Amino acid sequence: MNTTRRTFLAAAATVSVAGAANAGAPAAVSNYPKLVHHVFFWLKNPNSKEDLAKLLAGLRTLAKIETVRGVHFGVPASTEKRDVVDNSYSASEILFFDDTAGQKVYQDHPIHKKFVEDCSHLWERVVVYDAISA
Amino acid sequence: MNTTRRTFLAAAATVSVAGAANAGAPAAVSNYPKLVHHVFFWLKNPNSKEDLAKLLAGLRTLAKIETVRGVHFGVPASTEKRDVVDNSYSASEILFFDDTAGQKVYQDHPIHKKFVEDCSHLWERVVVYDAISA
Q1: Which residues of chain A lie closer than 8 angstroms to B21, CB-CB?
Q2: Are A73 and B133 in contact (CB under 8 A)?
Q3: What is the mean pLDDT of chain B?
Q4: In principle, which of B35, B36, B72, B86 could form an S-S bond with B97, CB 3.0–4.6 Å?
Q5: Angstrom distances, CA of residue B94 to CA of A49, A71, A72, B97, B111
Q6: pLDDT at B22 over 60
Q7: Does B15 contact A4 at a Cβ distance shorter than 8 Å?
Q8: Cβ–Cβ contacts within 10 Å for residue A56, how many?
Q9: Residue ranges in chain B assigned as alpha helix (H)
Q10: What ipTM score was computed for the predicted complex, to two decimals?
Q11: How far, in whole angstroms, is CA A131 from its chain's centroid?
Q12: How many CA atoms lie within 13 A of A82 on its CB side?
């Protein structure tokens, strides 16, 4: 077991098992804070490395918001191409929160508003998925 | 700073800063393994709590695959309804891997194949997003 795996199992120990569906399932522990906010961005200029860099730099500022418990910023991975895989987006933003209240603080936060103000001209489409541990 | 936040900052220390776009940005460290595999499922019977429980139980078995570094299984959160938010799905599966090779091991793993065999009759649509840290 490597250091990263140990760290994630340690993190799992801080999160309680949620919901009756978990009963009897040892793998039912979520390793992460309960609320995940996943946003996909499609750039107006998908081939512009400069626009992508601007967007990613803007996204990184969101990590400073106090209710954010974890972040992952990315681009499409070079995994196998399959019909079910959508790799058409330009950038991916994952933020973890403890709960919906934490996500609301982020949504209304000046840092988030500044990000939208500075970067929204770069994208033509955004899709948001909010999921809560189950 | 609470325990959860400390744990994630500790996790961040195990992941190297990736890419030139990070230069000079202290919030540029990804707290998680580099590759995120996010799958959304739409059930054939979206109102069936039994089918949802079966799907979630199947998803939890995936955490046992040896290249999986972290998991989050969820359902739509009760965050604010906005045009950009898609809350039409039934279940969300997030798996973190160190790299695309780790994701490929999962993709071809007997536990994953058994999950598809046992549960694919439950869903009518799946969308997969694979993102790599940037």
Answers
A1: 52-53, 56-57
A2: yes
A3: 83
A4: B35
A5: 27, 13, 12, 10, 16
A6: no
A7: yes
A8: 23
A9: 3-12, 49-61, 100-107, 110-119
A10: 0.78
A11: 10
A12: 13
Q: Which two tokens stand for residue B102?
A: 């780790």
How many beta-carbon pairs below 8 A join chains A and B?
A: 205
Identity of residue A117:
E
B79·A73 Cβ contact <8 A: no
Kind and range of the H or E element at A37? Answer: strand A35-43
Ranges in chain A, pLDDT < 70:
1-31
For chain B, how many residues are written?
A: 134
For residues A100 and B57, the answer to whether their CB atoms sit within 8 Å is no
Cα-Cα-Cα-Cα torsion A28, A30, A35, A37, nearest 10 degrees, comes to -110
A15 vs B11, residue with greater confidence: B11
Residue A47, token pair as written in the block: 């081939």
Q: Which of A53, A86, A96 sits opposite B128 (nearest CB)?
A: A86
Distance CA A96, CA A62 (A): 11
Residue A134 to residue B22, Cβ atoms within 8 A = no
Instruction: In whole angstroms, give the CA distance from residue A54 to residue B70.
Output: 29
Identify all chain A residues contacting B78, using CB atoms and an 8 Å cutoff: 100, 132
> Tokens for A9?
């199992």
